[in-house]
């Protein structure tokens, strides 16, 4: 199968007030230049939480900082964006990637691979968050949507935890989620016939090596609302011949399959339904990935009526135009 690969520009911003979720007339934090607020008052109210992320952004160089900015006192400052409306629209690079690559690739193949999604520095900072999270012992064995026995370990060998993005130590994971949202928002209305209106929390997964994998399955076999699976990989210097861990997709109606190596800073998108059965082949080294599922509005509404709640912690929905909050 033909595989599409491209590079995403990493210079994009969050697009909502960190405190209330408003997306209009935003101001940008003058120190980290990542976070937005609708007013100075909301920034002051949020400063106790934001200052940790703001200072960490300086250290990890997520965005360029001048010596003068770093020498200023650590009180929060806001600067106006060039235009108020620009904060609610995707940047040109994101829109170009969506229009010229993601949309045609997904509509033709149902599978799309983006390499160098965030860049090495940001990718490494996310990897650090995930490894630290794994060391806390909060990961649990992956559960099946319809589990009727104790044989789940024979089916999937991953350990997982669900992340909203506001948890301590998960700032970079939240940053990744916001970038995924930006990209999907730029594609919305043009991915198949879907109208995407939200997503799950992020499922952070670890295959601990020792031949662990996940047998062939479909993410959304029963119409629970999930339409696009979005996976970000964090495995530096991954060698599939030695380490295994390939995600093999068996596109419906095609004789060929697609092998996706879980390479560092790689983003994978594919349809979540029966069109894309897939498996994770045995991994012989620790393998990290972060997965988010995006909801189609109509299918999700129908699923709620039927009490189908199989998508990520009982189908927690996260609005794309608001900060991550459980529904």
Automatic annotation (TrEMBL):
Location of the protein in the cell: Nucleus
Species assigned in the record: Megalobrama amblycephala
Domain MYND-type: 17-54
Coiled-coil region(s): none
Name recorded for this polypeptide: hypoxia-inducible factor-proline dioxygenase
Reactions the enzyme catalyzes: L-prolyl-[hypoxia-inducible factor alpha subunit] + 2-oxoglutarate + O2 = trans-4-hydroxy-L-prolyl-[hypoxia-inducible factor alpha subunit] + succinate + CO2
Residue ranges annotated for the Fe2OG dioxygenase domain, each copy included: 198-296
GO biological process: cellular response to hypoxia
One CC-aspect GO term: nucleus
EC nos: 1.14.11.29
Regions of compositional bias (Polar residues) in chain numbering: 80-94
Cofactor(s) in the UniProt record: L-ascorbate
Gene3D superfamilies, A to Z: 6.10.140.2220, q2cbj1_9rhob like domain
EC top class named in words: oxidoreductase
Residue numbers spanned by region Disordered: 63-94
